[in-house]
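Instructor's aside before we start: the two examples that follow are unrelated to each other. I chose them only because their records fit on one page, so don't look for a connection. First example below.
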Amino acid sequence: MNYIELSKEISYALRHAPWEYELEINEEGWVQVEQLLDALHKDEKWKKISEKDLITMIEKSEKKRHQILNGKIKAYYGHSIPIRIVKEEKMPPEVLYHGTARKFTNSIREKGLLPQSRQYVHLSQDIETAYRVGIRHDMRPCILKIDAIQAWKDDIKFYYGNEKVWLANEIPSKYIVEISC
């Protein structure tokens, strides 16, 4: 079983194209596990997938992208679907980070961090995670430091994604410092 490939398939289904799988997704992003399995079983490749396989996929995943609870599954973050996935607002850690391509830094200096094609701006809890995100877009990514606690005190809303990812609607540039570029 290729759990990385399965994780990517499920991420695509839950984050970007639930209608392609005929999934009914609620406002918190949850889908019935049985409904997801039925959709996956239509593809010969995933014919034998079970809930146990989904649980194993989540446990083996380094990035913790999904959660199963009470017969339902959801993606924690990364949604591009037109319905807004409701997240629980939380006080962030003092500092968060964002890895990005150098070509975006002028725009970020001018406009801050915006969600672009996603529903939220994704922030990392540590520099290493921000670097891994940034390197997907640039071999020498810029790492940005976010004064999250000051932004929060100034009424910028933050949402918990998972133990390494935080989300925000946007981050104005006054809370952002480039620490490497």
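Example two begins here.
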Amino acid sequence: MRARVHVTLKPGVLDPQGKAIAHALEALGFDGVADVRQGKYIEIDLEDGGSGEGNAGAAEARVSEMCEKLLANTVIENYRVEIDS
């Protein structure tokens, strides 16, 4: 089973790296970019504990716990978990 985690800054949190990307895009001639928000993407391969919807739900709960404890700073970041069986 594979988990995909998308971590992004919460609205209102300053994103200096996103601003730098936006300025670089403008310098390269890409007009019309209003804003850029930078985040991170994490893939986690999980040991398969069998198939079924229940296991996908358990895997999502486990990865969410990983996000809460390590992968995301929940004070300033949001995260989204996707599970592929």
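The chain has a mean pLDDT of 94.
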